[in-house]
Amino acid sequence: MGDLLRVYRVIIIGAGIIGASIARLLSKYKNLKIFLVEKEPDVGWGATKANTAII
Residue 34's pLDDT is what? Predict the structure, then answer.
């Protein structure tokens, strides 16, 4: 983890709807190095209306 902190300015844990949205927003800053970490096989893997509080 120490090496990651030397390379990346921002580390986002979780590539769900919020984590992916934050990473996309921050990607507009061209000089900002971002590392997005996800334990599931794909981005937004477990996103449902139940876990995002959408009615």
Answer: 96
